[in-house]
C-alpha cells in the first residue's frame, strides 16, 4: 500500500490498463476519504515524482487528431465512436486529476484542494467505467478504435505552472464538456439507447463540480498572489492553450461552475484581432 497521497497518485499514473487504473483510483480515493473522516490513520500529501506521461494500455492506437476517422453521429458506428471518444477523455481525466495532486505537491495548499481532486479523480474513474459498460453493451470496447494522441498535451504544457494547469484543464477543457454533453445525450436519446443517456447524464451532472473546483482554486491562488483573476486567466489560456475557444457556450452551467462570460468570451478571438493596432 502506498503511504502518501502523492505515492497513490503515481501508482494510478503508472498503471496502464484502463479498468485496472480506475479500480486503483477508486480504492485510493476511498482510502483517502476514510482517513479524512478519521476512520483510518491520516495520509500525508508527501512528495513523489509523477511520470511526464501516464502509462497507457496497448490499445487504443493513438493518432494525431486529424488522422482519427470521423463517423456520422446518427449511425450505429458513429454512436460507438462517440462513446469511445468520451471513454478516452475520461481515462485521461483520471490521470489529469491525480497528476495535479502529485505534480504540485511542493506548493502548500489547503486540504480541500486535495479532497476536491481526489473526488474528481474518483468520479472520472466511474465515468470511464460507465463508458466502457456502454461500449460493451453495444458489442464494442475501449481500445477497439483509434483515439486522440494529443490529450496529454495540456498537462505537459502546464507541468510547471499550477495556475496554467487550472486555467486550461478544468476551466477550458472540462468546461467545454459542459457545452457539448447535452448534444451527445440527444444523440443517444433519439436512438432510444437508455444506458448511454443515463451514463452521460451522470457525467454531465458531475462535471459541473470539476469546473467549479478549477475556478475555486484558481481564484484562491490569484488571491494568494494578489492577481486579477480575469486578466491572469486570459494570459494563461493564451499562453498554454493553442486555439481560440469555440461558442456556443453553455452559459448557465458555466455560471453554476463559477465561470462568468467575461472569462471565456474574450478568448473566442485571438489577441491580434481583439486588440487591432
Ligand atoms: Fe468525467
Ligand atoms: Fe471532469
From TrEMBL:
Domain of life the protein comes from: Bacteria
Pfam families tied to this protein: DUF455
Organism annotation: Sedimentitalea arenosa
Annotated region (Disordered), positions in chain: 48-73
SUPFAM superfamilies assigned to the protein according to its UniProt record, in alphabetical order: Ferritin-like
Protein name: Ferritin-like domain-containing protein
InterPro entries for this protein: DUF455 (IPR007402), Ferritin-like_SF (IPR009078), UCP012318 (IPR011197)
Amino acid at each position: 500500500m502506498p503511504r502518501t497521497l502523492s505515492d497513490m497518485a503515481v501508482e494510478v499514473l503508472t498503471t496502464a490498463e484502463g479498468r485496472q487504473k480506475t479500480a486503483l483510483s477508486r480504492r485510493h480515493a476511498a482510502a483517502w476519504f476514510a482517513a479524512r473522516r478519521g476512520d483510518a490513520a491520516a495520509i500525508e500529501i508527501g512528495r513523489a515524482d509523477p511520470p511526464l506521461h501516464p502509462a497507457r494500455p496497448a490499445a487504443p492506437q493513438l493518432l494525431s487528431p486529424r488522422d482519427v476517422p470521423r463517423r456520422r453521429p446518427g449511425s450505429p458506428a458513429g454512436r460507438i465512436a462517440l462513446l469511445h471518444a468520451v471513454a478516452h477523455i475520461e481515462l485521461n481525466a483520471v490521470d489529469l486529476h491525480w497528476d495535479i495532486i502529485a505534480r504540485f505537491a511542493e506548493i502548500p495548499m489547503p486540504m480541500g484542494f486535495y479532497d476536491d481532486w481526489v473526488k474528481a479523480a474518483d468520479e472520472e474513474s466511474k465515468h470511464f467505467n460507465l463508458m466502457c459498460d456502454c461500449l460493451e453493451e453495444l458489442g464494442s470496447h475501449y481500445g477497439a478504435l483509434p483515439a486522440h494522441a494529443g490529450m496529454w498535451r495540456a498537462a505537459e504544457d502546464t507541468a510547471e505552472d499550477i495556475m496554467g494547469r487550472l486555467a486550461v484543464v478544468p476551466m477550458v477543457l472540462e468546461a467545454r464538456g459542459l457545452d457539448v454533453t447535452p448534444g451527445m445525450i440527444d444523440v443517444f436519446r433519439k436512438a432510444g439507447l437508455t444506458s448511454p443517456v443515463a451514463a452521460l447524464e451522470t457525467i454531465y451532472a458531475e462535471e459541473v463540480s470539476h469546473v467549479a473546483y478549477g475556478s475555486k482554486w484558481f481564484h484562491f491562488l490569484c488571491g494568494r498572489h494578489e492577481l486579477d483573476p480575469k486578466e491572469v486567466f486570459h494570459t494563461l489560456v493564451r499562453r498554454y492553450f493553442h486555439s481560440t475557444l469555440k461558442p456556443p457556450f453553455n452559459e448557465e452551467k458555466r455560471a453554476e461552475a463559477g465561470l462568468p462570460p467575461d472569462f471565456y468570451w474574450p478568448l473566442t478571438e485571438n489577441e491580434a484581432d481583439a486588440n487591432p493596432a
